[in-house]
Design a protein that fits this description.
Order of helices and strands: HEHHEHHEHEEHEEHHEHHHHEHEEEHE
Distance between the termini: 41 Å
Number of helices: 15
Structural class: alpha/beta
Radius of gyration: 21 Å
CATH architecture: Alpha-Beta Barrel
Strand content: 15-25%
Number of domains: 1
Number of strands: 13
CATH class: Alpha Beta
CATH topology: Anaerobic Ribonucleotide-triphosphate Reductase Large Chain
């Protein structure tokens, strides 16, 4: 139970500190929709989603209003389409993506995830067809998101898939060149992808999940920053250990809010409650930034020496506080550092405090990886593949989830600006050193073996 003082703190969080439920995501299993006919498959998928999601957005809004906590995004995640539609060719899979886009629009959700494949150990014909379909599928839709798992700590890194995805990212950027390559913002390449991610673009419903389930993603970087500022203002001599304790207590409160809302939405819809993802997910709004937390901790900017240690402290404290608040913590959980989606982080890139190399170093301790990073449009596909491979290696060796959401902006060079709009924000194009030096390595293909730590049975 919360004390009266804690209730008042929560009211202040809602009023002035950007506390919200960042996403409630309805996971829907599509395995019972499988058909040899793409038309029948689309009809079955359409009917099932409409039945389960007909009142989803309305329910989220009503529950949010009841508690005075906004549910910012309402989303759907489906079973991996490469599995459900494994018999379809790439053109048919583009048709499936367009149908999913139409369904998402009709039920009123922001995004629908699950145009996905799991290829960490090899690619089936269906996997290959889906990967080849990604550029056109993302260019022809507004709400469909794709994710490909190319690596795991058990299987190693599928370098054939990594090489192919470098090419597909370039194609997707070219097909959306008029909008800064924005299609790439709807594609995540993963190592160790969780089966219950509620956040886009990585959300899909895993094989071991219920037929329908509610997963919630809570946020609150502004709340964490204000809590740190208040505590240090009252006692400037606080140690980092004491600051960690403050972050833990704050994460606990934020997580409890998210679970209360998610459980009520699940009960009203008559589906299972899944997990709370306690990631600190920023927006481009002032005061809702993960980057600003680094300044509250005493750093001039995110990216300067000490940033990796500060991120490790933040990530650990958020997870500890959240795990005490809920027995069902999952998804990614921790701190996101998406460059264009966080105004403070985008400014750090523009002011040369934060580089691609430093971002990669920080991903060894953050929740996701290289997220929403804009690079010059002339970066070769092989170099993009090499960047992905580096990030996958961090995830595989450290037994953690890492991902890459990178955008080669057609016609733009390092130092120029790109504006994506809305939640995706804007950023300065990052320089990519030694752009032509990786082709010989990534073109060798094959599979980088799993580390010895994988032998745990």
């Amino acid at each position: 139970m919360l004390s009266k003082g804690e209730v008042l703190q929560l009211l202040e969080m809602v009023k002035n500190e950007h506390l919200d439920v960042r996403t409630v995501t309805l996971g829907i299993n599509l395995f019972d929709c499988i058909s040899h006919s793409v038309e029948q498959f689309i009809n079955k998928v359409t009917n099932k989603i409409k039945v389960l999601a007909d009142n989803f957005v309305e329910t989220c809004n009503r529950v949010g209003e009841k508690y005075g906590i906004e549910v910012v995004n309402k989303r759907i995640a489906v079973s991996p389409i490469a599995v459900c539609g494994g018999c379809f060719n790439r053109d048919e899979l583009v048709d499936v993506a367009c149908a999913l886009d139409l369904i998402a629009q009709e039920v009123g959700v922001d995004f629908i995830g699950g145009f996905s494949a799991l290829v960490e150990k090899g690619m089936t014909k269906g996997d290959l067809e889906l990967i080849h379909a990604i550029p056109l599928a993302l260019a022809n839709t507004n709400r469909v998101c794709a994710s490909i798992n190319v690596a795991s700590s058990k299987a190693g890194i599928n370098m054939d898939a990594v090489l192919l995805l470098g090419e597909k990212i370039k194609e997707a950027a070219q097909l959306s060149a008029d909008n800064g390559g924005i299609s790439c913002a709807k594609l995540c390449v993963f190592a160790n992808i969780p089966q219950d991610v509620p956040f886009m673009a990585g959300a899909y419903l895993g094989v071991g999940e219920p037929d329908a389930v509610i997963n919630v993603g809570v946020s609150g970087p502004g709340v964490v920053k204000k809590a740190i500022d208040r505590a240090i203002g009252n006692n400037p001599r606080l140690t980092l250990g004491e600051v960690s304790e403050i972050i833990k207590r704050t994460a606990y409160k934020v997580t409890r809010v998210g679970e209360i809302i998610a459980r009520e939405v699940a009960n009203e819809l008559g589906v299972s409650f899944g997990i709370v993802d306690l990631s600190l997910a920023p927006t481009p709004n002032v005061g809702d930034s993960v980057g600003e937390i680094f300044q509250s901790l005493g750093l001039k900017s995110i990216g300067v020496p000490g940033s990796t240690a500060a991120l490790a402290l933040l990530n650990d404290a958020v997870k500890k506080g959240g795990s005490f608040a809920s027995s069902h913590v999952g998804g990614l959980s921790g701190a996101f550092i998406p460059v264009s989606e966080d105004l403070n982080i985008a400014n750090a890139v523009a002011n040369n405090f934060l580089t691609l190399e430093k971002l990669e170093a920080m991903t060894s301790v953050c929740s996701v990886g290289l997220d929403m990073i804009a690079i010059p449009g002339d970066v070769p596909a092989e170099t993009i593949s090499a960047i992905i491979a580096d990030e996958m290696a961090i995830g595989v060796i450290n037994k953690k989830t890492t991902a890459v959401r990178i955008i080669p902006v057609p016609g733009k060079k390092a130092g120029e600006k790109v504006y994506f709009g809305g939640l995706l924000g804007e950023t300065t194009i990052c320089e990519v050193p030694h752009m032509g030096c990786s082709g010989g390595f990534v073109k060798k293909g094959g599979r980088i073996p799993a580390p010895v730590q994988s032998l745990v049975n």
